[in-house]
Specification:
elongated, mainly alpha, two-stranded antiparallel sheet, 4 helices
Length: about 180
């Protein structure tokens, strides 16, 4: 009795479970000119085999595909116009904030490049150092460089917070 219930439940579950059938089907004309359908690519004559995979057929006509493409292009154009219009509609204080952030970014980039150059010079000096006094002098300069790098990192973190605040402000203005 329990076995019978289990079999009935299993049968119902299997009957209601979605049947997913995946596979590729090919069609070709045989020697008599009739269309032949198969799921075995090896049965398709070499000269009639697909040259590239075209993916799943979406069932749309060429007219429907053209309409879809036009709709996508229209939406993209509207988004582009909104972006362009947004830059014109944002108040000048936002432009000033952006200019300040850009100037700060350029200053940080210059500091970063200077620190890298200083590090490279110290590494070259370290390779050429022969006496313990020269190595000690370079080590002192490396400690100073590390302090500069830590200061730079603090400045960079403060800059990133400003950028985050600016971006939130823009998002809020776009939502208005």
């Amino acid at each position: 009795m329990k076995l019978m219930k289990a079999l009935i439940i299993a049968g119902v579950v299997l009957a209601l479970a979605p049947c997913v059938c995946l596979g590729e089907f090919y069609r070709f004309k045989d020697a008599s000119g009739a269309w032949v359908y198969t799921d075995n690519l090896m049965e398709v004559p070499q000269d009639q085999r697909p040259t590239k995979y075209e993916g799943v057929n979406d069932g749309l006509s060429e007219k429907e595909k053209a309409a879809q493409k036009l709709e996508k292009e229209t939406k993209a154009a509207v988004r582009q116009q909104k972006r362009q219009g947004f830059s014109k509609s944002v108040p000048s204080n936002t432009d000033k904030a952006f200019a300040n952030l850009k100037a700060e970014e350029n200053a940080l980039e210059k500091i970063s490049n200077d620190l890298r150059a200083e590090q490279g010079a110290l590494l070259k000096m370290k390779e050429k150092a022969k006496t313990p006094e020269e190595q000690d002098n370079i080590n002192i300069k490396m400690v100073e460089l590390n302090k500069k790098v830590m200061t730079y990192e603090k400045q960079r973190q403060a800059y990133l917070k400003k950028v985050d605040t600016y971006n939130r402000m823009l998002q809020k203005k776009m939502g208005d």
